[in-house]
Amino acid sequence: MSLAVWGALLGALAGAGLVLAWSRVRVVGRPQLATRVLPYVRDLPQVGRTPALRVASASPTSAAAGVFGPLLRSAADAVERVLGGATSVRRRLERAGLERTVHDFRVEQVVWGLVSFSVSAVVGVLATLRDPGSAVGTLLLCLAALATGVIARDNWLTHQVTTRERRILEEFPTIAELLALSVAAGEGPVAALDRVCRRSGGELSRELGRVLAAVRTGEPVGSAFDRMAATSGLPLVARFAEGIAVAVERGTPLADVLHAQAADVREAGRRELIETAARKEVLMMVPVVFLVLPVTVMFAFWPGVVGLSMTTP
């Protein structure tokens, strides 16, 4: 074959490659239907929405899963087999308000563990360069750092749950009073929920927004609040949702129920504040006993000690 034929073949292959690459770039860069539609139906429940229709997350763990997907998924499955507790993790994810699956959370645990492993590995390599005999200790340190990172993500999830529930308790009296005022003004439960969700912001408002979205899609009000009571990890919020569900189903005065619920939460907050102050009272004595009292004693007795040392021959 002549050089012209080889040149033509190579040119054809290069052109075909460029065409394929350009067509793929156009397909990847084209916005998906879910990306264009879901922002306008964001408040609808996740019923029947497959993972392919979810909006891609911009979190670092999602990006890492997209690049190193098979390895991370295998590692996440291994963590699930070792730790277990998928039901508890799913429950805490719901209570923390995180729209993630248990597998996504396991991937995050793997990423946290790998980051901790990498940091400890860098420190260990630097220590090994100075002392070559510490390679075994460095390996054990890296493995311990890997396990620590995995467990730290689980503990952080528990912290996220606690923080969110504390915010919900702080917002609850105000939200309940607003609902009571709206209902007392003559609005129905759905209209009152709509008004409160539009006028407020916070974790409890988002929970009520999910209830409102479920009601708008045809679910009964009592059933939506029953589901909120079942998924809530706070007894006060569960009683609040159950009280609204009973009031709607049986026709009892809803405003009185909401006022009573808000008063109960405020009373519980006062009791918790008093209990916290009682527990902190012992800690407040620590600086008094170990700092203020020794200084006072020293100021009282030091002049006498100095005087005795000056008068003693």
Could you characterize what this model shows?
With 313 residues, the chain is mainly alpha-helical. 81% of the residues lie in helices and 0% in strands. It has twelve helices and no strands. The protein has helices at 3-29, 33-37, 60-67, 69-83, 86-96, 102-130, 135-184, 189-199, 203-216, 221-231, 235-250, 254-311. Helix 3 packs across helix 4 and helix 6 (102-130) packs antiparallel against helix 7 (135-184). The longest helix has 58 residues, at 254-311. Residues 45-58 have low confidence and may be disordered. InterPro entries: T2SS_GspF_dom. The chain crosses the membrane at residues 110-129, 136-152, 282-302. Pfam families: T2SSF.
Largest sheet: none
Poorly predicted segments: 45-58
- The value of Rg in angstroms is 31 Å
* Total of DSSP H or I helical runs spanning 4+ residues: 12
First-to-last CA distance: 120 Å
Task: Give the percentage of residues in beta strands.
Answer: under 5%
Helix content estimate:
over 70%
Chain-averaged pLDDT: 78
